[in-house]
Specification:
Blueprint lengths: L1 H20 L1 H9 L8 H10 L15 H6 L4 E5 L2 E4 L2 H7 L9 H4 L1 H6 L1
Antiparallel strand pairs: 1-2
Helix pairs in contact: 1-2, 1-5
């Protein structure tokens, strides 16, 4: 399957991103994984509105995570101030497997409501 051929490069990119910027930046990337298109304004709203995990603990995502994410190589500019994930389908496949229990509401909002 074509998706399998992209899994390792995406996993490697995510690992490199986490090593370079840290866990908080990766958590921010989790939040940005599902919109089809990304803008700096949308990412800023995600950063501002998802400040705590499911237990109410502050995630401490620095404000520079928005810029670092846009310039990281995980996404590409497809229009004026319009970005998308590179290999988005593979990322949506990988992120749930790497889920952090504190962030499960990001990956499965329906399950969060049922809890």
């Amino acid at each position: 399957m074509k998706l399998d051929t992209h899994r390792k490069p995406i996993e490697k990119r995510l690992q490199t991103f986490e090593r370079r910027f840290g866990k908080q930046h990766l958590i921010f990337a989790y939040h940005a994984a599902f919109p089809l298109a990304l803008t700096p304004d949308l990412l800023q709203c995600l950063w501002a509105n998802f400040r705590c995990d499911t237990k109410g603990e502050v995630l401490d995502i620095p404000w520079v995570a928005v810029n670092d994410f846009l310039l990281s190589g995980l996404c590409e500019e497809v229009g004026e101030e319009l970005y998308c994930w590179i290999l988005r389908i593979a990322i949506c496949e990988i992120l749930p497997k790497r889920r952090d229990g504190r962030l499960w509401h990001i990956l499965n909002p329906k399950r969060q409501r049922e809890s």
